[in-house]
């Protein structure tokens, strides 16, 4: 069976394996029998266990045919809006871009570009609504 970028598929978690110099991975099996590896470290908070079934999006298939999967996030859904608390504001860089830093539900720091046409940066501790554009390695990519 051919996997298609952007589509979700169910995979059974067969076991965890340790690859030298690459760390722990989940060995997954699709119903077609195809086996794939998923790095474990980015998804420590996902409660993925051996013999469980997880739903993953085919994030990318590179030119050599390697498939990159992104498990469905336990909290965030792409293109939905969520509240985040501002933890840090940045100074303008040489291109006059500003950023804010928020934390996701697993306390990952996420930087968000603040448009120059918006009013002033929100204050630290302020709650703001941000859209989850996509998820990469368990961390949301956020947008205003």
List its salient traits:
52% strand, 5-stranded antiparallel sheet, elongated, mainly beta, single chain, 144 residues
What layout of secondary structure does this protein have?
Blueprint: E1 8-19, E2 23-30, E3 35-39, E4 53-61, E5 67-71, E6 81-89, E7 98-103, E8 109-114, E9 127-136, E10 139-143
Antiparallel strand pairs: 1-2, 1-4, 2-3, 4-5, 6-7, 6-9, 7-8, 9-10
Commentary on this structure:
The protein has strands spanning 8-19, 23-30, 35-39, 53-61, 67-71, 81-89, 98-103, 109-114, 127-136, 139-143. The protein is 0% helix and 52% strand. The N and C termini lie far apart (38 Å). It contains no helices and ten strands. The mean pLDDT is 92. The chain has 144 residues and is mainly β.
Uncertain ranges: none
| Strand fraction | over 45%
Care to count the β-strands? 10
What fraction, in percent, of the residue positions are helical?
under 10%
Through-space gap between termini = 38 Å
What would you call the shape? elongated
Structural class: mainly beta
Mean pLDDT: 92
| Largest sheet, strands/sense/barrel | 5 strands, antiparallel
Radius of gyration: 18 Å
- Give the ordered list of helices and strands: EEEEEEEEEE
Give the number of helices: 0
Provide the spatial order of strands within the biggest beta sheet.
3-2-1-4-5
């Amino acid at each position: 069976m051919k996997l298609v970028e952007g589509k979700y598929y169910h995979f059974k978690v067969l076991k965890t394996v340790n690859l030298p110099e690459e760390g722990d991975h989940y060995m997954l099996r699709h119903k077609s029998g195809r086996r794939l590896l998923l790095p474990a470290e980015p998804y420590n908070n996902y409660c993925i266990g051996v013999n469980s079934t997880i739903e993953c999006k085919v994030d990318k298939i590179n030119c050599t045919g390697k498939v990159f999967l992104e498990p469905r996030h336990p909290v965030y859904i792409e293109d939905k809006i969520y509240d985040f608390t501002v933890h840090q504001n940045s100074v303008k860089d040489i291109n006059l871009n500003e950023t804010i830093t928020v934390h996701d539900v697993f306390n990952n720091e996420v930087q968000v570009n603040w448009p120059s046409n918006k009013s002033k940066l929100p204050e630290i501790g302020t709650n703001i609504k941000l859209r989850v554009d996509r998820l990469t390695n368990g961390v949301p990519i956020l947008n205003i």
